[in-house]
Amino acid sequence: YEGHNKDLSWISKIQVNHPAVLRRAEQIQARRPVKKEWQAAWLLKAVTFIDLTTLSGDDTSSNIQRLCYKAKYPIREDLLKALNMHDKGITTAAVCVYPARVCDAVKALKAVGCNIPVASVATGFPAGQTHLKTRLEEIRLAVEDGATEIDIVINRTLVLTGQWEALYGEIRQFRKACGEAHLKTILATGELGSLTNVYKASMIAMMAGSDFIKTSTGKETVNATFPVAIVMLRAIRDFFWKTGNKIGFKPAGGIRSAKDSLAWLSLVKEELGDEWLKPELFRIGASTLLSDIERQIYHHVTGRYAAYHDLPMS
């Protein structure tokens, strides 16, 4: 898959069977949730896949500090003890912030003695509507500041106008600008117009060297949905069959409840198998999800639901 002027004409011939995808999505959503006694174990597993995220205009170094503390200590110590999981070193998979906050995050994680990665969004997040030159510079600066994962957004215009070679070329350049850092490519699926485009964009992103493909920025009106996920997961599977390379999957945006997180885990397990259920190949982008998981674990351990003050944000 190397080389710039490769022939991508086959991309335009792809068609996704929309009704079949919707049927599959309904089928999965109708499944029973995990059995009671296994639920706590699965919820703790879900914690280890979270990219704990804050992407707000009012982010300051102090709420980045709180975020990083929470990433290192996601679940209250006494709850972990009750489940005999207090010595397993459970943390979230990463923290995810804006480029200007990377330094704060690196510093805060160092202060709590936590070596999880700092992920930075880049390339004119969330719209991607800035000049290519500044989009590339943004990646380089974030990496310089210590980000080891970069969540880039693609230029949706190129998808909507069918400019697949140009899209491939841009992502190749993003890949190069990342250097050693992992590249997570946000497709912003809510803005791609069709499931066929979601499949095509997934393929191009993987061919161009992405380590992960990610559904959404969390800023679009439609974020991570099951139909879109199924198409992306099938693309990941096809790419694996063609190349032997395993590419990661990251749903993001609107994943707020513990129950949702379990549904995402079981979707990935069904479509790609257990080997994808590890932080190297699966992440969940979320900000409020963790507190709901903690609430559910509290309930599992104590038999009652936590009052708001029982489980502070950090």
Automatic annotation (TrEMBL):
EC number in record: 4.1.2.4
Record GO biological process: carbohydrate catabolic process; deoxyribonucleotide catabolic process; deoxyribose phosphate catabolic process
Pfam families: DeoC
Reactions accelerated catalytically: 2-deoxy-D-ribose 5-phosphate = D-glyceraldehyde 3-phosphate + acetaldehyde
Pathway(s) per entry: Carbohydrate degradation; 2-deoxy-D-ribose 1-phosphate degradation; D-glyceraldehyde 3-phosphate and acetaldehyde from 2-deoxy-alpha-D-ribose 1-phosphate: step 2/2
Active site, per annotation: K214, K250
Keywords carried by this UniProt record: Cytoplasm, Lyase, Nucleus, Schiff base
Entry annotated with the keyword Lyase: yes
Main enzyme class: lyase
Domain of life: Eukaryota
Any GO CC annotation of this UniProt entry: nucleus
SMART domains membership: DeoC
Primary subcellular site in the record, as a coarse category: cytoplasm
InterPro entries found in the cross-reference section: Aldolase_TIM (IPR013785), DeoC (IPR011343), DeoC/FbaB/LacD_aldolase (IPR002915)
GO MF terms, alphabetically ordered: deoxyribose-phosphate aldolase activity
Gene3D superfamilies: Aldolase class I
Protein family: Belongs to the DeoC/FbaB aldolase family. DeoC type 2 subfamily.
Function: Catalyzes a reversible aldol reaction between acetaldehyde and D-glyceraldehyde 3-phosphate to generate 2-deoxy-D-ribose 5-phosphate. Participates in stress granule (SG) assembly. May allow ATP production from extracellular deoxyinosine in conditions of energy deprivation.
PANTHER family, per the entry: DEOXYRIBOSE-PHOSPHATE ALDOLASE
Assembly notes: Interacts with YBX1.
Protein known as: Deoxyribose-phosphate aldolase
Organism name: Microcebus murinus
